[in-house]
């Protein structure tokens, strides 16, 4: 089964997660956000916090559903790519145990099929609209 979840901020969807779900485990297939399209540090921080909260809520949801494993779906094993090392740190921040598993590449195919429009680049006007929505007074007050 595939499950979608999203984080809203100020009425706008800022993060999407797609998980493959089995009887015992939920595996993250794709996490899509506006994070890298935003050039404003404050807006990036909001999206980053929304992503972290969405992971936490996903974990709680899957635990309530009786799943014993939440799999972030990958680990960067080298030391050269600073951005990928930061993603490892993000994952470690939730605790848990890292394990080696083989997935055969099917997950990346499912993610591309499930979210083709999410992975597309945003236009400059879309990025401005997202930034405006994220930094609006209502959004910064936490009302939606």
Structure explained in plain terms:
With 144 residues, this protein is an alpha+beta fold. It has one domain (2-139): Aminopeptidase (3-Layer(aba) Sandwich), CATH 3.40.630. It contains 5 helices and 4 strands. A 4-stranded mixed β-sheet has the order 1-2-3-4. The two termini are 30 Å apart.
Question: What is the topology?
Answer:
Elements: E1 2-9, E2 12-21, E3 25-33, H1 41-64, E4 69-71, H2 82-92, H3 106-114, H4 124-134, H5 137-141
Parallel strand pairs: 3-4
Antiparallel strand pairs: 1-2, 2-3
Q: CATH top level?
A: Alpha Beta
**Counting H and I runs of at least 4 residues, what is the number of helices?**
5
> Which value, in Å, is the CA radius of gyration?
16 Å
Q: Provide the succession of SSEs.
A: EEEHEHHHH
* Helical fraction: 40-55%
Beta-strand segment tally: 4
Quaternary status of these chains? single chain
Straight-line N-to-C gap: 30 Å
Number of domains: 1
Low-confidence stretches: 106-121, 139-144
- Give the structural class: alpha+beta
What order do the strands of the largest sheet run in, or round the barrel if closed?
1-2-3-4
3D shape: globular
| Beta-strand percent range | 15-25%
Q: So, CATH architecture?
A: 3-Layer(aba) Sandwich
Mean pLDDT equals: 78
